[in-house]
Design brief:
By secondary structure, the protein is an alpha+beta fold. It contains 2 helices and 5 strands, in the order E-E-H-E-E-H-E. The radius of gyration is 12 Å and the shape is globular.
């Protein structure tokens, strides 16, 4: 599996990244502290306070994770260190 990193915005946009983001970069994308949600072959980082902040529903990340996600999300797949 190849290494993938991308942002799934709540508005439906997908932004492919050319590198694995640092913790600080992931926090900037989600707008706060990150919460890690495991998926098959990777992880999704979301804002851990997203519901309290009333962030917009992210239907795209929710379908990937199979739970209700709000706000922008960072998706990492295939990175060996995530095992």
């Amino acid at each position: 599996m190849e290494n993938l990193a991308y942002v799934l915005r709540a508005n439906g946009d997908r932004v492919d990244l050319d590198h694995r983001p640092t913790l600080e970069e992931a926090q900037k994308v989600v707008g706060g502290y990150v919460e890690r949600v495991k998926i098959l072959g990777g992880v999704v980082f979301v804002n851990e306070d997203g519901f309290a902040l009333h962030l917009s529903d992210n239907l795209y990340a929710s379908s990937l994770v199979r739970q209700h996600i709000v706000g922008d999300a960072v998706v990492l797949k295939g990175w060996r260190t995530l095992a």
